[in-house]
User: Fold this.
Amino acid sequence: MENKIIEKQNMAPFVDNLINAEAEVIGPKRKDGKYAFDKLIETGELCLDYDTTLLPPKMYLFPPKETLIKFELGKEPKVEPVAEAKPLILFGVHPYDIKAIELLDVAFSTTNPDINYLSKREKAVIIGVDCLNPNPNAFCPSLGTATAETGFDLMLTDIGDSYVVAIGSSKGEQLLTKYAETREASQAELAQRNSERQKALARYKVTLNISPEELPQLLGKSWDSPWWKEKSEKCLSCGSCIVVCPTCFCFDVQDDIALNLKEGERYRQWDGCMLADFAAVAGEGNFRGDKESRFRHRMYRKGKYIWERYEKLGCVGCGRCASACLAEIASPAETFNKLKEESK
Amino acid sequence: MKAKLGFFDFTGCEGCQLEVLNFETELVELLNHVDIVNFREAKTEREDNYEIAFVEGSITRESEIPRLKKIRQQAKIVVALGACACLGGVNCLKNFRPMEENLRIVYGDAARYYDTIPARPISSIVPVDYYVPGCPIDKKEFLKVTKALLLGKRPEIPNYPVCVECKLAGNVCTFDKGETCLGPVTRAGCNAICISNGRHCWGCRGPVDDPNTNSEKEILQKHGLTVEDILNQFRIFNGYLEVSK
Ligand code: SF4
Ligand code: SF4
Ligand code: SF4
Ligand code: SF4
Ligand code: SF4
Assistant:
């Protein structure tokens, strides 16, 4: 992979050029003491040294609410599919979120390709940045998601006075040539990048005491563990853990009809297995009607089912769920470590 | 055939009916599909041939009970409109004081001419088919429920907590700002409007079907509220419920 250097003073012009170019630029900004991805109006708003964002950048590829079709009722009903997409630059995406998007790429293109996701994805450029200040609940190193080798067009690493830029695609390279002032990276600068990444690893506070490959098997034999009931007792079924998760991709589909009772649209919105009615079916049935089975299901998704289906982990260790959970029960790391201990 | 609607008010501030009248453009369109035959707030002529009754306000006087029962007898569908009708609402604050004292505070010397009973939701008197919660109601949700009824579909309102919409709105949680919130046990549907505007959730939409109030109380305590504080939070809108007692 080719590497360049952008001096820090040249970063603002690069971002400004991107903002003024044809595409919308989305990046992490400060929000009430935390960070959130949002449209950048000017470079000054961009915070590349953030820990993590409230919501994952997946929201720009798989929006919380999205129209799928428009229809008109009548003798001969009219139906028109909708798949809106515009050029987008996601700037400052952390490696774990890049890994999560790689999972979504597979999930949304396997079996029944999801045209709404894929059309947005195709128009999106991903400019990553290494996470050097991890949030206290993250455990990326244990899952191999602290750095990324693929899944980006460009990847930045802050090495002090400058950024090393790894070029991940020709699209990325073109943007760099067109909009940034760069120079070749020296061996010393590449060594510096390694050392920054190494130092960052030491800043993670949570560690998984099991290798990710062993998780499916561990979960497989933990179905009857008392942990599920004990821990889920406090669950509020509030869905915070699934809404903030970069790898969750479940949605609900509903119709909305205009006041003329003729025209309408079918839309999807994020949904998830921790909500009480997620597995509810006609006739008052619910496949997972209690907190315990929902709590267990989510952990199985993160550590077993997704792996078995897509050969990618269903959790990238970002720690957002643990930060969002008021009941303090949502961290997969805590559950996996506990089950590992029980299994000894 | 246009469906015939009636609007009825019991004890409340009439804010929910006002919300309906505030629709203007939408209301005009709605009138293509319905006849509003009874709406004291909006018109003087009245007929009693309504099929769908929207009921605002809670029940706080003996005399309101037979009136509500009559509405139930006439209407095929009864929809509770707003926190007062759905939950008892703010009126239930008076339930924590003796009724005579309430009368004296409100009416002074004239107290003996009035009767008052502990405030209650309309569902404690008659069966209610559907709910449009909130104080006041959300106009979009009212229209959603009404459109579903006109199409013969079952109206769906969210059965998940406000936290879902709050997170989707991109808010920083009030608990992370050193405050507290009833969002984790309160029914969504308002787009977490209070939190998005810098406040917290007071629970005006009432609880979800199966709220984990024990866990919520524990969390509130952990964040510095006393048992008394917690009861006072719940009592603002949910005084009729067990959780406030
Ligand atoms: S695990 Fe936590 S965040 Fe998730 S639904 Fe339960 S209480 Fe909410
Ligand atoms: S389960 Fe939690 S830690 Fe894992 S990816 Fe989702 S939000 Fe991040
Ligand atoms: S619910 Fe609120 S707005 Fe509606 S009548 Fe009662 S007090 Fe007024
Ligand atoms: S502010 Fe309230 S509604 Fe929003 S996430 Fe926090 S507890 Fe839930
Ligand atoms: S945030 Fe809470 S108090 Fe505010 S409107 Fe919604 S339910 Fe009512």
